[in-house]
Amino acid sequence: MINKILKHIAPYIPENNRLERIWKLAQVDFKKRYYNDKLGLLWALLNPLFQISIYYFVFKEVFKVPTENYGLFLFAGLLLWMSFVESSQKGLSIIKTKRYLFENIQFNKLDLFYSQTLSVFIGFSFNFVAFVILCYALGVYYTWSILMFPIILFNIVLLALGIAMILATIQIYIKDVVHAWTILVLLGFWTSGVFFKGDLFLDKFPAMLYLHPFVGIIMNMRAITMQLGNWNYELMFVDLAWGFGLYFIGRFLFNKYSHKAIELI
């Protein structure tokens, strides 16, 4: 099934050597995750659905959260957060897992991050289609505002790439960064607005809307997919600033310090 889907997409990829290499690396990484599993690509959908089911039961049935369509509400937040975390965490081990490429092939090493992120968001696309179908099934219909979705996706890709490159560079010198990142991911998860409306931060922690880019990203995602509020342009620009800032910092650090990777890992 995966091969058939990727086969249909491949002809639309520009025939440029670098772009083709990024696509091939992403294709290999994506296949490697699901190819030998009996359920294959279905796992990409089952994992978030299982988490959504657990959180839905806890917050909707136990804590009685009053939010309408709370399952979709969770899906919208978890869909974005889980893709970001998966992509950024892969950056921690990319030098070790792709060491053979670092040592033996001359190419732009940043392409490894691009291909890795692309492979994660190929899986994301299947989950997003499931989300759209579920929205229609529950009577939530989209307006022209859904055309803003590429901005949200682009923002998350920038954040994921930036964090992945920063983490990969730091781990060359400090192996313990994996533990620090695990703690930060946990903190970020519970303060991102996945389980509640980001507007709640305005009352007690207004600065969080500008210190945590995912608060605004998830708010805007729900605004265009579930009509929960209006698209917030101010937060969009703040979140994009975070994305571009982290991306260029990560790119600079990796280009400057990654040459010592092979001798130190």
Explain this structure to me?
It is a single chain. With about 260 residues, this protein is an all-alpha fold. The protein has one domain (about 1-265). Helices cover about 75% and strands about 0% of the residues. It has helices spanning about 1-10, 15-35, 40-60, 70-95, 100-105, 110-135, 150-175, 175-190, 200-205, 210, 215-225, 235-255, 260-265. The model has no long low-confidence stretch (mean pLDDT about 80).
Main sheet summary = none
Name the beta content range.
under 5%
The shape is: globular
Number of helices: 13
Low-confidence parts lasting 5 or more residues at pLDDT below 50? none
In the residues, how many domains can be counted? 1
Radius of gyration: 19 Å
The structural class is mainly alpha
Mean pLDDT: 80
Indicate the percent of residues in helices: over 70%
How many β-strands, per DSSP?
0
What is the CA–CA distance across the termini? 37 Å
Write down the secondary-structure element order.
Answer: HHHHHHHHHHHHH
